[in-house]
Amino acid sequence: MVDFILVWLGGAFGATAGALLAASSDAQTVFLAGLIGQYVGFLGVMAILARFKTEAGLGLVIHGSDFFYVAGGLTLQFALALLLAPLADALFENGLPTQTVADSLVDASSIGVQVTLVFLYVVVGPVVEELTYRGVLFKALRRRGKWVAILGTAIVFAVVHYEVGSGWESAAVILPPVFLLGVLLAWLTDRNGRLGPAIFLHSGWNLLAAFVLLLPSELFEQMS
Fold this sequence. Notes:
Radius of gyration: 18 Å
Number of strands: 0
Strand content: under 5%
Number of domains: 2
Shape: globular
Number of helices: 9
Low-confidence stretches: 217-224
Mean pLDDT: 85
Distance between the termini: 47 Å
Structural class: mainly alpha
Largest sheet: none
């Protein structure tokens, strides 16, 4: 658990440093710099900790067949969105509020910024988050039992994806699917003994969200 806390502190420091370095720029650039800084902070602390560890690593092993889990992530995201659609419609008359990364993706000032955000969201993010949650945290909790590790990492994973102050309505719609995603990712990691399947499933989940966000709003108006 100490390792996980150190990794999180590294991410917080990296995000702050990145945002401060870009403080004179527009808000979108500041956010992008902070996000990159957070990922660098996470990975930097993991790399430092790895130099002092003698036991096996975090399981960053990828096989070619893992790519097919992208389809699983796409399907899971779509299925849960359909399942929760009635609840979202009941709680939000004007649509479910998007999260920070989603807002930045939709409001991107240029194609270059959009491409960078999609790359971070679909490729870098899943790798870093899987190393953090199903790597560092799962490894720490696994000593207390399989399901303690699976449920514990899923709870933490869901909580950190909830934006404080967004209200209980957002929590009711956002937290359940993210928790279920976290359970599946942890179960896959435990079952396979490596992070490859979880990384690609996570990437597929984020890919569908990015694709939907980048579609023209006029298309949804025609479909409604």
